[in-house]
Specification:
The chain is globular. The strands form 2 sheets. Strands 1, 2, 3, 4, 6, 7, 8, 9, 12 and 13 form a 10-stranded mixed β-sheet that branches. The protein has 2 domains: 121 residues, 3-Layer(aba) Sandwich (D-Maltodextrin-Binding Protein, domain 2); 128 residues, Periplasmic binding protein-like II (D-Maltodextrin-Binding Protein, domain 2). By secondary structure, it is α/β, with parallel strands linked by helices. The termini are far apart. InterPro entries: PBP_domain, Phosphate_ABC_transporter. Keywords: Signal.
């Protein structure tokens, strides 16, 4: 009798242990818990961190680490499985898309979530009030190197090069490492123009962003005789010439934490976070209602 009781207890214990292990394994593969790293260029760090914070609030058992890395290098790390997600803005070349599909073994499917912009800035006391596409094109070929970027391999340089239909190595420019440093040190170079990502200064109620905005003014870009601003309207309708769409790339093949985060970022809640960052949500648009 005693042996039977011991046998029953052992079976119950064994079953509970197996169930517990299975449950733990299943839980570790869920979209709402676990750990992952997101790689992002410094230019879109603010919106990436805001989305990560929102996701971790919604799913407290998840842990997301945001690591800044130049866009090109972040893409290579994604291919090497050093992170689950990379935030991108540039259009990948056919060779890069092929490398992604071969290395990751997934179809190239960018998850677009926000419209951002590359902006041209001058010190607050500058007399310059706008910049033309011709000035940008010619200036990026000039030995004077009047445009200051935050670094080589940065998303801002990549994007401007693509807009001008050039390779970054064929352009002439100056460098001050880090977008924040570009803005803070710009007044030392009165004849030069800083080139930064809008998200660096777009968060409306952030004290650090406020301080940076107080140091500069953003130049409207004149194209074909018309002036365009990097505001909600300019980005929503893609009229501002240097509007760019941010998107996620992942190497996760199943619906786990990376896919859960991407879905969250593209839902109404995630898109409201994008909007609060001062960027244009990709999946929702403000609606105007006229009352009569």
């Amino acid at each position: 009798m005693m042996k039977n009781n011991l046998r029953i207890l052992f079976i119950v214990f064994l079953g509970t242990t197996i169930f517990g292990c299975s449950e733990k394994k299943e839980k570790s593969l869920s979209y709402n818990n676990g750990e992952m790293t997101i790689l992002t260029d410094e230019s879109f760090k603010s919106v990436t961190e805001a989305l990560a914070e929102g996701y971790m609030i919604s799913y407290p058992e998840s842990k997301i680490k945001v690591v800044t890395k130049k866009e090109d290098l972040g893409f290579l790390d994604l291919l090497s499985n050093k992170a689950k997600i990379a935030v991108m803005s540039k259009d990948l070349s056919p060779q890069e898309k092929e490398a992604y599909e071969k290395q990751v073994d997934l179809k190239f499917t960018p998850a677009r979530f926000a419209a951002d912009a590359v902006v041209f800035v001058v010190p607050k006391n500058s007399t310059k009030t706008s910049i033309t596409m011709e000035e940008i094109t010619q200036g990026m070929q000039s030995d004077e190197k009047n445009f200051i970027f935050d670094g080589a391999n940065s998303s801002n340089l990549n994007f401007v090069a693509q807009k001008l239909k050039k390779l970054p190595k064929d352009l002439k420019y100056s460098i001050i490492p880090g977008s924040k440093n570009v803005i803070e040190e710009l007044d030392k170079y009165p004849n030069k123009i800083g080139v930064v990502g809008l998200n660096t200064i777009s968060r409306p109620y952030d004290k650090n962003a406020d301080k940076l905005r107080e140091l500069i003014k953003i130049l409207p870009v004149v194209h074909n005789g018309k002036s365009y601003n990097a505001d909600f309207e300019g980005m929503r309708e893609m009229k501002y010439p240097f509007t760019r769409v941010l998107y996620f790339l992942t190497n996760e093949g199943s619906f786990n934490i990376a896919s859960g985060f991407i879905r969250y970022s593209c839902t109404h809640l995630g898109q409201k976070i994008v909007q609060k960052e001062g960027l244009q949500p990709y999946n929702i648009y403000p609606r105007e209602v006229q009352m009569r």
